[in-house]
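Per reviewer request, we include the raw input and output of the structure prediction for the construct analysed in the revised manuscript.
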Amino acid sequence: MSDAPWTATVLTIFPEMFPGPLGFSLAGKALARGLWRLEAVDIRDFATDRHRTVDDAPFGGGAGMVMRPDVVARAVDAVKARGAPGPSIYLSPRGERLHQGIVRELAAGPGVVLLCGRFEGVDERVLEARAFREISIGDFVLSGGELAAMVLIDACVRLLPGVVGDAASLAEESFAQGLLEYPHYTRPAVWEGRKVPDVLLSGHHERIREWRRQKALEITRARRPDLLTTVSATASCADRTRSERREPSSAAAEKTRAEECP
């Protein structure tokens, strides 16, 4: 197994934007300790004219400019040739929505190669030819992919071994168990007439766990009810799997379970 750290290779026309916020707090300390690696690559270095042009007018007309496939391809091929690890990802509002499951998947790998678009976007042909996976951080549009790349990198880095001091805290965060996180309180116990819930001062760990679970359910039900469908389906599949392990099942039943509970 390779001892190389998890590596984020970022293709951008603004490499000076990195590490930016990633140079601070948990991610910055982990970067300084060598727990992960960052390389920002200037796409303009792969242009062939003296103006270092990376874009051109769109075929079919329309506003704005499009990043050229030949220039982007040379940049991608160059970093891949020198061993940049991980899948190639294009940050795009039309991509699949980033969620914690994708973050865990990417953090478990050797790294990522992130393409940051600018202007009106990137020529479709290079996205297809270099098998880019398109990922969106939300239903809104940014001026470029750099901030989205930072979001994805930060989300992955904090899951790497040794980055977060108390690894157990990761299991209680929003989305870790399919729910939004419960409320947090600290000193003072009374602030502006608002008291910390008595159960949190009780020292009764089981009651505290149950309270936190119930609050997580309430908040999720109010703010993200769509997540509860996923949690219910997962629990149902887990229960069915445990039941079927105790009882013989037909090949047809096994096939059905495999399709419904991947």
